[in-house]
Amino acid sequence: MHTGSPPTRTSLTVLALVAAVLALILGGAGSAFAHAGLSGADPADGAVLKTAPQQVTLTFTESVSLSDEAVRVLSPENERANPRPAQHVDGKGNTARVELSGTLPQGTYTVAWRVVSADGHPISGAFVFSIGKPSETAAVVATGSPDDTAAGRLYGFFRHVAYSGLALLVGAVAFVVVCRPGAGALRPVRKVLTTGWAALMVSGVALLLLRGPYEAAGPLSSAFDPSGLGRTAAGRPGIALIARLVLLAVGALLLKRFSARLDGQDGQDGQDEGSRRRDFGTGVRLVGAAFALALALTWAAAEHASAGIQVPLAVPVAVLHLLAMGVWLGGLITLLVVLWRRAPDARDIPASAIGRFSTLAFTAVATLVGTGVYQSWRQVGSWEALSTTSYGRILSVKIAAVILVLWAASFSRRWTVRLVREVPPAKGTLTVPVPRRARVAQTVGAPISPPAADPGGEPGASVAGGPPVSDEPPVSDEPPVSEEPPPVSEEPLVSEADGQRRGLRRTVTAEAVLGVVVLAITTLLTGTQPSRAADEKAAAATVQEPRAKVLMVPFDMGTAGRRGTVQVTLAPGRVGENTVEAVVYTADGGLATVPELRLTLTQDDLDIGPLDAKLKNQKGYWAAYDLRLPVPGVWTLNLTVRTTDIDQVTVHDSVRITPSP
């Protein structure tokens, strides 16, 4: 019977180190998206507009889904300025546009947005623009994490429960079908199967109900809102959750039949290996594999793998990663439950089954490493991202935890090697000590043969030409040897194996605890914006320059009441014709009226200027609408502020003018 050779400790150590290095090196090429980011807005953040816009348009780095409250435009008095919900622009999934009311007063408006990115995670933010001139605003928007709500925290908890249930269900089935433990180990396996199925079902229902308030940052009471449930059922995450629940309902029937087969084996300790293989034949393996693949697909089709580049490759890789996690961690927990079932004398699981699980676990870990390297390449992107982004830092902690798991696993495999190589003595065989000249192996309970006699002769005749056999015992100088066998020790013949099992239990426990930690970190990663998404967001913001550049230039005339700030808005801030608007604020932030404000610009590197912007008083702010800048580069702004007939000051700042598109 083939039991499989457990991988050596050296090979596991090399595998862990190679995985860590490759995950870092391969993270330096390509591009990918996951978790959308705002890449542009019209009006731009901080813009001061001469007239009220008719609409507000947002552009994201990837497709987003919109709810009724996805985009809100709030007036300075905190009143809603967009009467209708946001819509995509011309069918483009990465845009959101809201129409504004016909008449809008001057002041500062706040745009608050919360959308759901293509990978199923909500993102949110806010910015401001002003009409006429900036003003105070009463609008208040949430600035915390999109997940920092009661619904978000509960959603994260049940997401972890779902991952745990998947691991238990997949791992327990794989453990029984592949490792073929003894009949006495099947009762605890059935409990693990039931626990995994129940965890998946409960978490699936909870996630489906919480999806609506999680996306919209609504109260928990809205979880039972029929309209919210309808929107959830129409979205990709909702469809995936419903499919998961349907699969679990079908899986309940499959588990019932599977448990019936376990019941058929239970109590048949003498069942041979061939019978167990027939009970879990090719059909059972194929059905179980198809069910596990479909179940894992309900995660991969609605999370990070479903958005960005190489989706046709990323989705199956994510499925393999999930299944490998389930086979390894769930199988490990199943093994742990069986080993501790009757501690410290449990011998229900044969050493051959432990050896087979060692081989299975090594295959699963190798798959985890390979798929994890690809996912790291797809989501991180650079060495710097490991320390400069939240996703990179969490991933670094996960890599360290995985290396600790493999280190603990090396000790488990050491105990497994000893168990598999242990050959117990044959049943009913006893080694009986005899005089120093010989040792005779006797079978327990067998009669002691009398001295041989010639078949046709008298006692004492010769046997096969040997010396004559006498009825009298031979005379010997050696002390007499008792014909009774020595007492047999009452200690178990496999006490050494018991010690090895106890050592295996301890190391498997440590390995399982660390594995649960890795699972928790993985759950946290699924809710964190990947590093590449943050980089793509920053790159998009750089490429798509804001439609206005705003500078705050302080001035101080050295006397009381003669200090303040000039806000200069230059739109679009490119080569060619530009609009300049300037507002003067007092030291306490109020609007100030000054008799004169002059602005000139110079390009020192090319010795161009000064160019006079020719600002004109617009009764509250100063503006010029025909300032032409000839070349790109860094320009120096020279602002002269006169507050009285004799008090004035000139201050300086710089702005980068970009080439025209």
Question: What does this molecule look like?
Answer:
The chain is of the alpha+beta class and 661 residues long. It is 43% helix and 20% strand. The strands form 5 sheets. Strands 2, 4, 5, 8 and 9 form a 5-stranded mixed beta sheet that branches. Strands 12-13-14-18-17 form a 5-stranded antiparallel beta sheet, with no helix packed on it. A hairpin with a 4-residue loop joins strand 17 and strand 18. Helix 4 packs across helix 5. The longest helix has 32 residues. The N terminus is likely disordered.
Please supply descriptive tags for the structure shown above.
20% strand, 13 helices, 43% helix, 661 residues, 5-stranded mixed beta sheet, 5-stranded antiparallel beta sheet, alpha+beta, disordered N terminus
Could you tell me the strand content as a percent range?
Answer: 15-25%
Specify the number of helices. 13
Q: State the secondary-structure class.
A: alpha+beta
Instruction: Give average pLDDT, whole number.
Output: 74
Strand tally: 20
Rg from C-alpha positions?
Answer: 39 Å
Distance between the termini: 73 Å
Determine the fraction of residues in helical runs and give it as a percent range: 40-55%
> Which of globular, elongated, flat, extended, rod-shaped describes the shape?
elongated
Unreliable spans: 1-34, 266-271, 343-347, 423-473, 488-494, 537-545
Biggest sheet overview: 5 strands, mixed
